[in-house]
Amino acid sequence: MVTESGAGPASTAASIAASGRPPVDVGEIVRREEQQSIRGQQRSEVPEHAADDVLRTVRERLAELIREAAIIPKTRRLTKPTRASKQRRIEGKKVRANIKKNRGKPRHDG
After folding, report:
1. Which of 72, 75, 90, 100 has the most CB atoms around its CB within 10 Å?
2. Is this prediction's pTM over 0.85?
3. Cβ contacts of 5 within 8 Å, gap of 6 or more
């Protein structure tokens, strides 16, 4: 199994263990899925080849769920605003402040 970072199975197992998720016994999940599928097929009297198709579909779905669960999302890195973006922000605030200051009745000093 290769993760997005290109690491092998050892680091994948370590990263899954470090994520705090409980360990998953994949074999047990597959056995349970097979038993449930087989029981369901026996009740409905479906031909054997159809039961094999259902088991294959269940296994594929389970494998996909396990692959998705094994991917550890990347953590977001906080970015610092650039000096120019800070200056633009301050200039915009000054313009808005000046507009607001000039509103209202004119003052008569005197």
Report:
1. 72
2. no
3. 11
